[in-house]
Amino acid sequence: MENLITINAELRKEISKQARKGLRAQGKIPAILYGITAESIPIAVNLSDIKGILKSENKENSLLRITQGEKSKFDAMIKDIQYDYLSDHIIHVDFIRIDLNKPVEVEVPVVLEGEPIGVKTEDGLLEFISREVLVRSLPTSIPKEIRVDISALHIGQSIKVETLAKTEAYQILSLANTVICAVAAKAKEEVVEVEEVVEEAVEGAEAAPEAAAGLEKAKETDKDKDKGKDKDKDKDKDKDKGKDKDKGKGKKEG
Amino acid sequence: MLMPAKVKHRKVFRGKRRGIATKGNTLEFGDFGLQSLENDWITARQIEAGRVAINRFIKRGGKLWVRVFPFKPVTKKPVEVRMGKGKGDPEFWVDVIKRGRVLYELEGVSESLARDAMKLAQRKLPIKTRFISRTQIGAGL
Fold this sequence. Notes:
Structural class of chain B: alpha+beta
Shape of chain B: elongated
Number of domains of chain A: 3
Number of helices of chain B: 2
Helix content of chain A: 25-40%
Structural class of chain A: alpha+beta
Shape of chain A: elongated
Oligomer: heterodimer
CATH architecture of the largest domain in chain A: Beta Barrel
CATH topology of the domain at 32-76 and 86-136 in chain B: Aldehyde Oxidoreductase, domain 3
CATH class of the largest domain in chain A: Mainly Beta
Strand content of chain A: 25-35%
Strand content of chain B: 25-35%
Order of helices and strands of chain A: EHEEHEEEEHEEEEEEH
Number of strands of chain A: 13
Radius of gyration of chain B: 17 Å
CATH class of the domain at 32-76 and 86-136 in chain B: Alpha Beta
């Protein structure tokens, strides 16, 4: 129970967008508390408290005691944190109620130790593929991180979840064949560039005749149009002449 | 240059560019990235120019992920052609980028090298972008 961090929360009566904006302006973060068959409660917590949690030893997997007023207290953990996509500010936090005697499923960060031989001497590249591993354990025995020694890795070798050390404190739920990290040979950039040039040349060759054909067609159609217009004009002129003639006849008759 | 191998429709409407990126707005693969701060079209040529600039600067040092792909064809009428007579032919390919979208990701290099490489790529793009790293998420509180 030493790791329990106590934070104060106040009930959010208004849950409108304006109210949430107002809270953030006051240095508070809108949050919600749910889990263990009870109703979800909209709450507001201090931003400084959340900062404190994220800077603590267990970070997002810290055990919390949320006190709302004097009567109600909940044991909880952080389920999710929403960040602003551009400023990286926290905009909302999800807390989930937990029972300290029942196991929970959390994601624990993987920390790589040492420098692989493949990178040191064989000019390889270390690829860190799975940065977190899903773990089931009692809330009080969640590991802070899972350390993996990668110093013996050569090019083409990898470390999978099945090779991680097993303990009684927690059970790893991630698939056994999930790759955590691998050492790969560096890509040869020059070959790729040559291929690209060939592709571009082919595209250009394809596009050019199409464009030229389009232009010719367009010119032809314009010429046809002009011819058609000229014919119409001639017809109109003939009509006018005919009218004039009729008019002349009428006058003479009159 | 990047372009789809096969498309359902050769010509598409131009569409709108408003809104924010709801997908592809976080670092998924690498430690460092370049995030867009504006909405615009990015052409296949611009994506390629950025990729080449980064790769040349890091000199096979790390691994680069290009998180955008030009799926959208843009048509253009030939020069000196009268209006009408149907839509023009596909001319180039673009991707609709909305603010927040991560364009490139980089791994296996130092932060200073990644910053300089991304700066070169920034100059190849028609939009404002910012450098992001895995360590800064949650640290800039």
